[in-house]
Write a structure and sequence with these properties.
339 residues; alpha/beta; Rossmann fold; 2 domains; 6-stranded mixed sheet; 11 strands
């Protein structure tokens, strides 16, 4: 039986770019349109769309509130939001071509469509995001996640890694993997006990989840001490910035760790690998490289990110050190390098 057409909610008033997109998507999707953000709030939770398209001309405090509400509500937390904006020379509103990478991340935008919109590409992007949303919702229903943490377990993660590498092989897309190790966690467990260690692990995992804003991104328990992150359509440079942001965020939790020689609080080391999925056994390569780079991070003193042989090891600087990664301010701070 064929799946029902995707329900797409388009938030945008009168305008040629909004009209054109609605017509483009109407052939494959059940398109609903509201004129502004105020009208969208009721429509989002009533319609429960598979995907939301937001016209960049409407960006502002109300739009930020709507995006935050979507992420916070369990009914819509997996719903991707796509930004529709003018081209590089157009006036895209507050979130247009002049928007900062940090602003994209804070809004939780999953993808960006810029004028002139290519009809085939727009339909393909929407189909991909809807497919990922439905896959994640199916897994949430069928698979028990880690108790109390809301993150995927290792068995499901391994299957998703294989599936994503196979899917991206068809388009020569990029796939990134992060492996995070809680530094000197065995010492933490020995001092504070298993229950406190498990609580600490889930607080770190929740922090990691909060830093990954795109619906396709996945967080999983990898081992008793490690967290894995899968970032589709993300190159090495973008993945490195995400890893450093996570490292800084975990440190900012200031969870006490009296037995760590690194700091008086919990820290993490991160191994990062990414590549295009054009060759065979991409999943095995990513795991092997991540484990090797994570081992190197520990050898070099922990509390750092290692993202390549001979590359820099990071212990601070975060997003400010690298800036916008996509080569243009009209893209989110990471990912989509192959689109």
């Amino acid at each position: 039986m064929a799946e029902d057409p995707a329900r797409v909610l388009v938030i945008g008033g009168d305008g040629e770019r909004v009209d054109t997109l609605c017509v483009t998507l109407a052939g494959d999707s059940d398109v609903h349109r509201v004129p502004d953000v105020d009208a969208a709030e009721g429509a989002v939770f009533g319609l429960r769309p598979d995907l939301v398209v937001l016209d960049a001309a409407l960006l502002g405090d109300r739009a930020r509130h709507l995006c935050a509400a979507l992420r916070a509500d369990t009914r819509t937390a997996m719903t991707p939001v796509v930004l529709l904006q003018a081209g590089a020379d157009g006036a895209g509103g507050a979130g247009g071509a002049g928007a900062s990478a940090r602003a994209w991340r804070d809004l939780g935008i999953a993808d960006v469509l810029s004028e002139p919109v290519d009809a085939d590409l727009a339909r393909a992007r929407v189909a991909w995001l809807v497919e990922l949303r439905r896959l994640r919702m199916d897994m949430a229903l069928a698979v028990r996640c880690e108790t109390g943490g809301g993150i995927m377990n290792r068995r499901v993660f391994d299957g998703l890694l294989r599936r994503e590498s196979g899917r991206l092989r068809r388009s020569d897309g990029s796939l990134a993997l992060l492996l995070l190790d809680i530094d000197h966690f065995r010492d933490f467990r020995a001092r504070h006990g298993a229950a406190a260690a498990e609580d600490c692990y889930h607080r770190v995992a929740d922090c990691v989840s909060a830093r990954l804003r795109r619906p396709p991104d996945v967080v999983s328990r990898f081992t008793a001490d490690q967290v894995a992150c899968l970032l589709p359509e993300t190159d090495l440079r973008g993945a490195r910035v995400v890893a450093e942001t996570i490292r800084e965020s975990v440190a900012a939790l200031a969870l006490p760790h009296g037995d760590s020689p690194v700091a008086d609080h919990v820290t993490v080391s991160v191994g990062v690998a990414a590549r295009r999925c054009s060759g065979p056994e991409v999943d095995a390569w990513l795991l092997s490289e991540c484990l090797e780079r994570l081992s190197r991070a520990r050898r070099e003193g922990c509390n750092r990110v290692v993202a390549g042989d001979g590359g820099p090891t990071l212990m601070g600087g975060g997003l400010e050190r690298f800036g916008a990664l996509s080569g243009g301010a009209d893209m989110p701070p990471y990912g989509y390098s192959a689109l």
